[in-house]
Amino acid sequence: MFKIRFNPVAFWPLAGLSVLLQASVVHSVSIGGVVPDLVLLCVIFYALYQGAGRGLAAGMALGCLTDLLSAGIMGMNALILGCIGAGTGLLRERVYTTHPLTRLLVAAVAGLLHNLLYYILAGNFHRLPQWHDSAGLMWGSVLYTSVANLAIAAFLERFAVKKVFTLT
Q1: Best label site of 43, 106, 107, 166, fewest CB within 10 Å?
Q2: Quick one: DSSP state of residue 107?
């Protein structure tokens, strides 16, 4: 038997680094203008290991940092990532968090929700392109983020999760 111990001291610097990378250099790995959402992946990872309450807090914190470094509407990412963190945290006891299919599906649903909520909420403040004009980029972003989650989650798991073997 083993118990899984999450190490937040190792996770938070990596999460902060993901915010900086998302704001600066992640656009260099774009495919057709689509980039993976590293901050969303950190929120998903944290929420799956820590639960809904901490997932909400992590989503709000990382969303605020993202909003500070972006030219978007202040608080929009904090609200959306907080909701996604809480929703993903509810899955903690219901899914096998390290299974690749789980990682793909949770990232795909979270990415789709993130894009839809951002499009709906930002549409109240900005003039956005029509839905059918943005759909290709949204689906590309969901696909790219989902596939990137396999590598990012494995990387985060290596540094932030410890498996402690027990006799009971």
Answers
A1: 166
A2: H
End-to-end CA distance of the chain: 7
Q: How far apart are CA 41 and CA 21, in angstroms?
A: 13
Question: Do residues 80 and 117 touch, judged by C-beta distance below 8 A?
Answer: yes
pLDDT tens-digit series, residues 38-88: 999 999 999 999 999 999 999 999 999 999 998 777 889 999 999 999 999
Give CA–CA dist 74/77, Å, rounded: 8
Measured distance CA(115)–CA(36) in Å, rounded:
12
Which amino acid does the sequence have at 18? S
Hey, what are 51's tokens?
Answer: 């639960």
* All domains of the chain in start order, with CATH: 2-165 (1.10.1760.20)
